[in-house]
Amino acid sequence: MIRPLPPELRGLLARGEVLLSVKDAVRELLENALDAGARRVRVELWGGGLERIVVEDDGEGIPLEELPLAVEPFATSKLQDLERIATLGFRGQALYALRQAATLKIRSRPRGQVGGGLLLARGERVELRPAPAPPGTRVEVLGLFAGEGRDPRAEARGVLDLLKRYLLHRPHLSLALFLEGEARLLFPGAGLKEAARQAFGGLLAERLFPLEKGGAFALEGLLSGPQVSRTRPDLLFLAVNGRPVALPEGVLRAVRRAYRELLPEGHYPVGVLNLSLPPGAYRLRLDARKEEVALSKEAEAFLEEALEEAFRGQNLARALPEPRPLPALRPPTPSGLPPLRYLGQFRESYLLAEAEDALYIVDQHAAHERILFEELLARLREEGLKPLPYPVLVELDGEPPEASPLFAFEPFGPGRVRLLSAPPFLHPYPLLLPEIFRESLKGEGRSLRGLLARLACLPAIKAGHPLARAEGQALLDALLACETPWVCPHGRPVLLHLKEEDLIRRFGRRSGARAKEEPHPHPPRETTREGS
C-alpha cells in the first residue's frame, strides 16, 4: 500500500541527506549567514561541535513571526527560479534537518524590528518567545550526533578546513573560529592575499600571482607558476558566484590547456579561481551537497583565455642553476652566512644544504620563524597604520598615554582607550591587540619582541610538513637575508653544520671530493688499549 511517510521518517531522511558531519552543519549555517548579507561571522565549537555549535552573524536577521517557518521543511525566502539561483542556500532543508538531529536555538532580530525572538526546536516540538537580541542571527546546535562515538578533533579539523576554504572565496568577510573558547582562526576580511596566507601558509602564498579579468564573465584569483605544482588538483579551489564547488573536468582541461608545456604531464597548479558568471553560463546540481557544477563552453573558454592573459604578464621562465662564483665574488649576506644550496629534506622536518666545505642541517620551523620574525620587525619600521575593521576597547592600569608607536587610538572613558588603527600585519590578531598595545607603551623592548615572536610562530611551517625542492631552496634563500639566521626568536638554534674535514677524518679518507687527485681511501688507525 502506498502511503505518505510519517513526519519522523521524513526528518530522519532529511538529516541523513544534509548532515554527514559537524562540517556540514557549520557550512549550512555559514551559508545562511552569507545569504543574509553578513559581514562578520563568529563560529564556536565545543567538544568539536558535537556538544555545541554556535554560529553568530550580523546579517539581516529573521522577523519574529517567520522564525517558526524557518525550521519547517522546504521553507525558504531564497528560491524564486531554479534557472537563476543567486544564493548559497535554496532548498530550505538545513534548519529542518538540524532540528531533527539536535536541539536547535535561534535568536534573531532584523534591524528594523523592536526586540528579537528566541526559537527552541527539537524534533516536532517548536517554542517561540520574544527575547532581547542584537541585530543579526545567533544559532546554537546542541547534542549533534549524540551517542555515535565521533572524534571531536577530526570534526574540528573539518570545520577549520571548511572556513579556510570560504576565506579564499569571501576574502572580505570577517571570520572567527573558537575551539573550546580558544581562538583558532581570526581573519579580519583583509583580502585575497591574506586569505591565501591562512589557507596555504605564508611561504606558498608568496609564490602565487594575481588573476583579474572583468566583464559579464569575470575572474579573480591567485595561481602558482610552473615552479610550484602538485600531482593532484587538491590545492586548486574553484568558486562560482561565491559558491565553493568541486572542480569539473572541463575546468581542469581548460587549466591544463592554459599551462600547456609550463607544467609536466599530470601536474596541476596551486591556487584559487573565483568566477563570476551570468545565470545561463553554468548549471548547478540541485542535491543537498550543492557542490557539483557544469560550466558552459563559453565559460571554459573565458577561463582559459583569462589564464593565458595573466601568464603573458608574468615571468614564468624556470631558473637555471647559476655558475658557482668565486668566494670573493659572492654577494655578502647581512649575517655572513654563505649561500646555501638545497640538497634534500630529512623526516619532513630538517633541510639538508651545502655551502663551501660544509654540510648544513636546518630546522625548517625555526628557520621560518626567524624569517617571519624579521619580516614583522621590518614591517613595524616601514609600514604605516591602517584602520582596524572595527575599534578594539583596551583597559589600562593608569591614564591613557598621549601616543603609541604602533596604534592610533582615542580615549574612551577613565582608564580606557579605543584602538582605531594598527599596522596591517596585526589586523588578523584582534584578541592580541590589547596586550600588544599595552606592551608597545613600554617601547620596543624585550616584551614586545616576545609578542612578535609569538606572532611569527603561529603561521610558521611546522615539523612534519613536506617541502618541494623549490620551496626548500626558497626557505634557505630567505634565511640568508636575515640579520640573525643562527637562532629562532625564542633562542633555539636554526642550523647546525658539519665540516667536510670532519667527514674525511671519520670516513678514513685523505682528501675531499674536489682535490686534484683522489687517493685510495684508507681505514682510520685503530687504537687499542694494549697499543696506546
TrEMBL record:
- What gene is behind this protein? mutL
Report the function annotation for this chain: This protein is involved in the repair of mismatches in DNA. It is required for dam-dependent methyl-directed DNA mismatch repair. May act as a 'molecular matchmaker', a protein that promotes the formation of a stable complex between two or more DNA-binding proteins in an ATP-dependent manner without itself being part of a final effector complex.
Q: Where in this chain does the record put each MutL C-terminal dimerisation domain?
A: 342-467
Q: Which InterPro entries match?
A: DNA_mismatch_repair_MutL (IPR020667), DNA_mismatch_S5_2-like (IPR013507), HATPase_C_sf (IPR036890), MutL/Mlh/PMS (IPR002099), MutL/Mlh/Pms-like (IPR038973), MutL_C (IPR014790), MutL_C_dimsub (IPR042120), MutL_C_regsub (IPR042121)
Q: Which family does it belong to?
A: Belongs to the DNA mismatch repair MutL/HexB family.
Q: Where is this region: Disordered?
A: 509-532
UniProt organism field: Thermus aquaticus (strain ATCC BAA-2747 / Y51MC23)
Annotated DNA mismatch repair protein S5 domain ranges read 196-312
What name goes with this protein?
Answer: DNA mismatch repair protein MutL
Alphabetically list the UniProt keywords.
DNA damage, DNA repair
Q: Give the Basic and acidic residues compositional bias ranges.
A: 514-532
A Pfam family reported for this protein in Swiss-Prot or TrEMBL:
HATPase_c_3
